[in-house]
Design goal:
The chain is mostly helical. The protein has two helices and no strands.
Length: 61
């Protein structure tokens, strides 16, 4: 089996995508609501990832 070498950022984005898909599927009733909520969750995860990344960069110089 081939090894997959992902960077920390790629792993965080993949995790955000997978969690957003699951949250969208299990928390909403219609397909339109599921898609909208999944995209919203993904956008919030990505915003949080980059926001915390910048805070850590600023904190550690």
């Amino acid at each position: 089996m081939p090894k997959i070498a992902l960077s920390h950022l790629e792993t965080a984005i993949l995790m955000a995508l997978l969690i957003s898909v699951v949250l969208g599927v299990v928390t909403r009733k219609t397909d339109k609501e599921r898609l909208q909520y999944g995209v919203l969750c993904f956008a919030r995860f990505i915003g949080t990832i980059f926001g915390l990344g910048w805070l850590m960069k600023l904190g550690h110089g």
